[in-house]
Design brief:
Elements lengths: L1 E3 L11 H20 L4 H7 L7 H20 L2 E3 L2 E9 L1 E7 L13 H15 L4 E7 L3 E8 L2 H9 L13 H11 L8 E7 L8 H10 L2 E7 L6 E2 L1 E2 L2 E2 L9 E2 L3 H10 L4 E3 L7 H9 L4 E9 L2 E2 L1 H17 L6 H5 L1
Parallel strand pairs: 4-5, 4-7, 7-8, 8-13
Antiparallel strand pairs: 1-2, 2-15, 3-14, 5-6, 9-12, 10-11
Helix pairs in contact: 1-3, 3-10, 4-5, 6-7, 7-8
Length: 333
């Protein structure tokens, strides 16, 4: 497995073809200038020591040196391996509402994208805690099992949209049940669920499920996304309408979310424009008793950049030693 620690530099490899194009143009304009002096064939006879091919050899060597330099600059790493280690932290399951109502634009650009941005910021701050992700609408499923692989967590998070769950609705109770079942067998006390939703049109009894979670030692927190006055829902370039042709306005249902948080012995926070609400909740979770977990992680990458830099340096040295004149033995013939 090869990993590039600074892969953004690889885009500079696109410059390599331009070296050949630039050299070809330079030769073209040089021929035009020579043509003004007289017949090209005669001019070449007057300069027998000039090699037409060595210029191409030099630009090829320079391009290869540039190629290896950029690969080295991107810091290729190999030799990653799986390693078990014990870590101390908590387990957090996030249940994210992906129903159509989360497309309402109370926030910029909309409720769902703002929630994803907040979760991504949360992941950036985690160290040894384990995080999992459940998406829900009319039903729910585990998008990401509990893990310390934060890069994968962000990758799965970026792929989430309102089509992630085909059945519309807001099955809050089912989402909580899915989260409860998704905690690892290693965890017994340091567990928390964070539900992010507008709470609208819930279809089951999430309060009783939150109470069951509390009895199992799992804290349930809720973040309300939206506004009490509500916003219309963009849908396929238009505004979503009901069966009577009226524009649907999605409003935040804080009552049910407060009841869920109370039954789950957690806390309810309404998401703000600047502070979404995850930070104070995570601070509360951090005060829970941490547990020791066995975690399997990738580590011990071997840096390979120095070899590529050495190859680039050697090629540049050879390129500088090659002139544009023919070898002396040709001049004696």
């Amino acid at each position: 497995m090869v990993n590039f620690a600074q892969a953004q530099y690889l885009i500079l490899l696109l410059l390599v073809p331009f070296f050949f194009v630039a050299y070809a143009l330079m030769r073209h304009f040089r021929k035009r200038r020579l043509a003004k002096l007289g017949d090209i064939a005669l001019v070449k006879e007057l300069m027998p020591s000039v090699s037409a091919s060595k210029g191409w050899v030099r630009v090829t060597l320079f391009s290869l040196a540039f190629f290896f330099f950029i690969i080295g600059l991107s810091r290729p790493q190999i030799g990653a391996k799986l390693k078990e280690r014990n870590i101390k932290g908590v387990e957090i399951m996030i249940a994210l509402d992906v129903s159509n109502s989360m497309m309402a634009e109370d926030y910029s650009p909309n409720r769902l994208e703002r929630a994803k941005l907040a979760i991504s910021s949360l992941v950036d701050k985690l160290r040894d805690d384990r995080i999992g992700l459940v998406v829900f609408a009319g039903t729910s499923f585990v998008q990401l099992p509990v893990t310390t692989d934060y890069a994968s967590a962000k990758m799965f998070l970026n792929s989430i949209n309102t089509e992630s769950v085909p059945i519309q609705g807001t099955a809050l109770g089912e989402a909580l049940t899915t989260c409860i079942r998704s905690f690892s067998s290693q965890s017994e006390r340091s567990r928390a669920v964070i539900v992010i939703t507008d709470g609208e049109n819930h279809e089951d009894d999430p309060v009783s499920v939150a109470k069951q979670a509390s009895e199992m030692g799992i804290k349930v927190f809720a973040i309300g996304v939206g506004s009490p006055e509500g916003k219309p829902i963009p849908y396929h370039g238009e505004l979503l309408k009901d069966k009577d042709g009226n524009i649907v306005v999605s409003k935040l249902d804080e009552k049910i979310l407060k009841e869920i948080a109370s039954a789950g012995k957690g806390a309810y926070v309404r998401a703000g424009m600047s502070e979404f609400g995850l930070n104070p909740i995570v601070d509360d979770i951090k005060r829970m008793d941490e547990e020791m977990f066995n975690s399997v992680i990738f580590e011990e990458f071997d840096e390979q950049f120095m070899y590529f830099f050495a190859i680039a340096l050697a090629l540049l040295a050879v390129e500088m030693l090659i002139g544009e004149r023919k070898a002396r033995r040709h001049l004696l013939k």
